[in-house]
Amino acid sequence: MKAGATSTDWSDRISLDELIRTSRILERSFYARPTVEVARDLLGKILVHGHSAGRIVETEAYLGGEDRAAHASRGRTARTEVLFGPPGHAYVFFIYGMYECLNLVAEPEGTPGCVLIRALEPLTGIAEMRRRRPRARRLEELASGPGRLTQALAITRRHYGADVTRGPLVVRALVDEPPFRVGVSPRIGIRHCADWPLRFFIEDNRFVSRP
DNA sequence: CAATAGATCATCT
DNA sequence: GATGATCTATTGC
């Protein structure tokens, strides 16, 4: 693909078999670190659900305590419970009456913090993703956005609390991860702490939700 | 292009 | 009863 072009090539970039053969599941210790580090290091990792998978190209860190944009800063409730539990689990919430957002819990158990997955570069199971998001006209519209990627990978609130170190929803690391530059910016679509630099993305990647 | 309205519900005030 | 970590279609320049 040439830089600047958009893609209407809907074929898989790699087979699921080869993807699994050339990657390893991220263990829980990866997530048991400061949220900002986990958010940055999740870039380039592979999110797999069933037969569909995509490369994480954009994330945001949501902290506890002073971070009023984070759900956890409002305290421990039924919804935010998983944020205070052990790392490496999914925090999925419903918003705007229509969309689900996927987060991965970070920090050691007892300390809240999570990483919002904001955009994926589709790799495998693209036909399946397209079936779930028929409105996507280009590959760039398939999973670039927090509401879009959960639709594309069929992730719902049923995955609330799911262990992403095992099971159908997992995150893997390529053994030979291609190098990339990391960009940093304020988070998108929030009202509190709107200038904190907690959004991370792969520079010059066409699948980032907003350049 | 950019700006804006509408969809629609869990959670909290 | 208001708000929100969004997306899409539509309108207007």
Structure description:
The protein has 211 residues and is an alpha+beta fold. Helix content is 15%, strand content 27%. It has 5 helices and 9 strands, in the order H-E-H-H-E-E-E-E-E-H-H-E-E-E. It has helices spanning 16-21, 28-31, 35-41, 126-132, 146-152; strands spanning 23-25, 46-49, 52-62, 90-95, 99-105, 114-124, 169-174, 182-185, 199-202. Strands 1, 2, 3, 4, 5, 6, 7, 8 and 9 form a 9-stranded antiparallel β-sheet that branches. The two termini are 18 Å apart. The mean pLDDT is 95. The structure holds a DNA duplex (13 and 13 nucleotides).
Structural classification: alpha+beta
- Helix share bin: 10-25%
Strand content: 25-35%
Overall shape: globular
Tally of extended strands?
A: 9
Q: What is the oligomer described by this structure?
A: single chain
End-to-end gap? 18 Å
Q: What series of H and E elements makes up the topology? A: HEHHEEEEEHHEEE
* Rg (C-alpha, Å): 16 Å
pLDDT under 50 segments (min length 5)? none
* Overall mean confidence score, pLDDT: 95
Q: Count helical runs.
A: 5
